[in-house]
Each structure stands twice: as structure tokens, then as C-alpha cells.
Amino acid sequence: MEKVNRQIQTNLPQKKFSAGAISASVWQNSGQKDGKEFEYASLSLERCYKDKEGNWQHTNTLRVADLPKAVVVLSKAYEFLVLREKAEAQ
Q: What pTM did the predictor assign?
């Protein structure tokens, strides 16, 4: 059961930042190199929209008008990661 719970937890973003239809999600990942385990963060960026049938869809393709909102959510995600890293170092 613990393995299932951990798998569910790892499939959820650690933090999500949104501005309108644009969102940036911060993911906590783990890897292994030279027999040592380590953790690292990654980020996904997406735009949500409704298709012709009114169903919500997601894409990582942005329009020119989406770029200012992308800058905002990416800046917030970067700030979150830098402040978290600083807090962990103390």
C-alpha cells in the first residue's frame, strides 16, 4: 500500500502557478547516478482551452498573446524553487 501511495504522490505537482489559461507546474523527481539517489525539480508549462465541443484540452503550444502570462508563471515557479533551495541550505 505504501508503494501505491508514494506513486500517487509522485504523480502530483509539488506546486502549480496559474495566470488565466497558462500554468506552470513544479515537479519533484528522483533519480539515481553511480548508485546514489538524488532529487531534482522539473517544470511543465501548459495552456488550457476549450475545443469546439466545449471539452477542456491541454497543450504546451503557446500563442504570442500567451507569452506575458507564461513569463509571470515561470517567474513565480523560479522564485519558488530558488527560495526553497535557499531555505533547505540553511
A: 0.79
pLDDT, tens digit, for every residue of 11-45? 899 999 999 999 999 999 999 999 999 999 999 99
Do residues 19 and 71 make contact, with C-beta atoms less than 8 angstroms apart?
A: no
Residue 24: CB partners within 8 Å, gap ≥ 6? 16, 17, 18, 43, 44, 45, 70, 73, 74, 76, 77
User: Which residue type, as a one-letter code, is found at position 90?
Assistant: Q
3-state percent breakdown (helix, strand, coil) of the chain, nearest 5: 40, 40, 20
Q: What is the CA radius of gyration of the chain?
A: 16
